[in-house]
Design brief:
single chain; 97 residues; mainly alpha
Length: 97
C-alpha cells in the first residue's frame, strides 16, 4: 500500500490472518489465547470475524505469535487487499488527508 493511503479495518481479514498464523505454528486456540492473555471465546470470535480486536488485543496476539504488532497489521492488510481484489470489490483504500 502506498504511503498516504488508508484502509478500512476488515474483521474477516484480521481473523483469517490470525487463524492462519496460529495454525502455521501448530497452536490451538486454547494455547494462543492463554499466551495472549485473552479468553479462548474472544479469540474464536476474532478469528471468525464476529468481533473486532482492539489495538491492545492485536498487540497481545502479535507478541504471543512471536512477531511485532506492526508485522501482524501488515499481514492483515495484505489479506484484506487480496480478498477485495479476488472478489472484484473496491479495496476500501482512500487517500489520507
Amino acid at each position: 500500500m502506498k504511503k498516504g493511503t488508508a484502509m478500512k479495518f476488515d474483521n474477516k481479514a484480521a481473523g483469517q490472518t490470525i487463524r492462519n498464523l496460529r495454525e502455521s505454528k501448530n497452536l490451538s486456540q486454547d494455547v494462543l489465547s492463554g499466551l495472549a492473555g485473552i479468553a479462548r471465546s474472544h479469540l474464536s470470535m476474532i478469528e471468525t470475524g464476529t468481533k473486532q480486536a482492539n489495538f491492545q488485543t492485536i498487540w497481545r496476539i502479535a507478541l504471543a505469535l512471536e512477531m511485532r504488532p506492526s508485522e501482524l497489521v501488515a499481514r492483515i492488510e495484505e489479506t484484506a487487499q487480496k480478498q477485495s481484489t479476488s472478489a472484484g470489490r473496491p479495496n476500501n483504500i482512500t487517500k489520507a488527508d
